[in-house]
Design a protein that fits this description.
The structure is a homohexamer of 61-residue chains. The first copy, chain A, has 61 residues and is of the alpha+beta class. Helix content of chain A is 31%, strand content 31%.
């Protein structure tokens, strides 16, 4: 704990994911004072057919 | 808010997803009195190997 | 299936939840052609300290 | 209810999933005294680029 | 990994939860061949106003 | 998008949550190059009876 889940559109590079999990972990360590070993992050990628706002699929915007 | 997640079997057409997010958004606007801009919907598709009821995978039914 | 999860701020009445699950279920039946028996809905209520946009808690807006 | 979600790395065989949902369902029936018909299980598979501990992607370990 | 989430109605005793996490962990170790240290379980309790099937809240059944 | 969910033990102060959502949002903006307006964060607090590792509830450790 904390367990973090990040849902985002597919298309980020491995290098971007690598930086993202490093920096999000550091942000949690600094602010909620947990050890870095306690932070687990799960990434879920999604395509633009599977996300909607205001009743509209993102691929139709 | 609301944030809605819909898990369903893969195989729906883009047109079905399009109608689904439109009608689910309208249902929320009517019943919980939120503006349509507040509704976010995430769709997660799943295959029949990854869902079980009564201890049995759906693909084995 | 579908399994629907709806996260929203606390404070809706029982009657609003009752209407919401009825209408969301009907929206799914109409659009993805599943039987009403297949629709499961889980509601998760949240307070304004536990939701953030643009890096700002909702209770601070 | 209960609704169980199991996130794990991809690569398990269909036979392993089949045994897993059978045994997890039995464990719930024995311990929380629900009927087997009440147990729904959703499996989510993930690759090693999408999971991190201690700020490090699993694929980089 | 695996990360398991179990959503169920509130009202189970601490002893039932204790047995549940022990037996679910053992079921995963036996079937997907992971070490027990790899299994994380999160329990989410819910009341009968926040769960619906067939368009009907459980508290109204 | 991204939509971030953070599950952690209850007991953090409002000020800690405030700093956490600010810094996690900045971490995402820097690393995946999204605008801050695109980041939504949901916090879920949990008690020590509802989290288990190695088959053991956290409250029993």
């Amino acid at each position: 704990m904390p367990i973090v889940q990040i849902e985002m559109f597919e298309g980020r590079t491995l290098e971007q994911k690598r930086e993202m999990v490093k920096e999000v972990t550091q942000a949690l360590v600094r602010t909620v004072k947990c050890p870095p070993e306690a932070v687990t992050i799960v990434i879920r990628e999604m395509n633009k057919e599977d996300f909607a706002e205001v009743g509209l699929l993102y691929c139709d915007k």
